Amino acid sequence: MEYKIFYKSSVEKDLKRIDFKQRKNIMDCIENDIAKGIKGKKLKGEYEGMYSYRTGNYRIVYTQIPQGILILRI
After folding, report:
1. How far is residue 3's CA from residue 15's CA, in Å, rounded to a whole number?
2. Contact (Cβ atoms closer than 8 angstroms) between residue 53 and residue 62
3. Residue 57 CA neighbour count, 13 Å, CB half
4. Which domains does the chain have, with CATH numbers?
5. What distance in Å separates the CA atoms of residue 71 and residue 5, rounded to the nearest whole number?
6. How far is Cα 59 from Cα 46, in angstroms, rounded to an integer?
7. Against a cut of 0.85, is the pTM above it?
8. Taking 80 as the threshold, does the pLDDT of residue 6 lie above it?
9. Is the pLDDT of residue 1 over 80?
10. DSSP bridge pairs for 54
11. From the CB of residue 68, how many other CB atoms can be counted at a distance below 10 Å?
């Protein structure tokens, strides 16, 4: 099952700070790995219910919502 991906508005700002090659790698991970199901590490404490998926030197922080997956930060 493939999930629909939604992005918080702050993600666009995060991506602008990253060079093109890394940005493409991050977007590929989101579309190919995360969209196919929950991947990465489940976070604890105040971030409970969120997940972190590492790609290169970056982490993609996201959560599952009824409509699909919401990317929160990079």
Report:
1. 21
2. yes
3. 5
4. 5-73 (3.30.2310.20)
5. 7
6. 17
7. yes
8. yes
9. no
10. 59
11. 12
- 16-31 as b/e, with b when 16 or more CB fall inside 10 Å? eebeeeebeebeebbe
Per-residue pLDDT reduced to its tens digit, 13-41: 999 999 999 999 999 999 988 988 888 89
**Dist CA 46 CA 11 (whole Å):** 20
Output the CA–CA distances (angstroms, integers) from residue 52 to 25, 42, 43, 65, 67, in the order listed.
16, 7, 7, 15, 19
- CB-facing half-sphere around the CA of 68: CA atoms within 13 A: 17
What tokens does 40 get? 């990465």
pLDDT of residue 70: 95
